[in-house]
Amino acid sequence: MSSADNVTENHPVGRVARRTVLQGAAWSIPVIAAAVALPGASASGDLKVVIGIPGSGGCSPAGTVLTDALSVDVTDATGPVSGATVTVTFTSADGGKVEYGGQTYPGSAVPVVVTTDANGHAALSNLTLVTPTTITAQATVTTPDGRTAVSNIETYSVCAPCQQEVFAGPFSGQRDAIVDGAGNLYVTGYNYNSQSDFSLKKITPDGTVAWTRVWNDGSLGVEIGPDGALYASHGWSGNSEPAGIYQIDPADGTTIREVIDWAWILANTSGGRLYPYGMTFSPDGSTIYLTDFRDAAVGQIIAIDLATGVHSTFAGKKNFQSLVDIVSDGAGGFYGAHWATGTLTHIAANGVETTITTFPGDGVINYFNVYDGYAYVGTENGRSYRVNLATGVRTLLPCINATYVTQIVRIPGTNDAYVTQYTGGGTGREILKVKNLFV
């Protein structure tokens, strides 16, 4: 949104946690399997055949041509066995198909036959993945002197197609979200000027609202602390309720305590005013970091020691402009999202900030999460991206078909995600569940 209140600062929407429309399918390619004991060996039992799928895993969409599709290595007690005839058989229990040499397997009567070289090695190249399901491969070997053996079995695993469905809602004013280990979703709502009718909701895995909290001005960021409690930033200074961070019992939504030292805020923020948005914990869980969001270049990251309550300004720096959210980089610094400029950055432990990428044409960005070296970022215009934090390369996530995405959060133990959408007032928008987003 362009403005969240009637003061001079503009205010952002949403953040991604850390921590059904059918779309394109993908294949998962496992690593090379270890050698196994093999039946059908020679009398001395020394003939071994091992097949493997080169590479280190990952997903490829259906239709991908694997240039290094399958390797076969044949050895005996004397070393590599050359000139062995290798017949590869493909099977599938659920309709999977691959193409090789102009034939489709399983199904074709034309055998897949290769011969080992002087190193006892043979390979299949240019194998095409056709359908999104599971296919196994196994090799049968006959040596020039008539010995036979069969190999281990390798599997091309299928990543199921991603699917989008409504999880809960509609709710208005959705901002940040986080998921606990049991799959419960906690989502914030910013209710200033009736943008939302709630501040914090707990939604169980079946989409049922377990409890709802409402307080002045609503809530913005939410995290789960090392103690299992919720930490929710709330309000904005200058209104009827001072801004801060509530520590909340996730079981029933009751407030345990207020974390912010308001006297420190009055003395150490610009004009004694706080605009709390994104939060993250230090790797050891001892410190919570809070962004003091400002459109003018006076924003800061506030570090709060949870044991002592001592507050400090991260790196002594107070010029983080419109910093809506941060995620720990595990090395004393952060990844940061700047709302007004639509910029994703890295903030080193000494406060030095470098740009990772921008999102031209997508409007503002909001809360975000980092998983396995990638940031998952939603935008004002509804497009969502996976960003490689090392290279800055961003990839559109077509599985998410939404409006004004504010958060993408992974459901623990799955490849699925919850996606929140912002709207100010009215009936709001649904919280979405996207299956197989992380494959």
UniProtKB/TrEMBL annotation:
Residues in SMP-30/Gluconolactonase/LRE-like region domain copies: 223-363
Protein name per the record: Sugar lactone lactonase YvrE
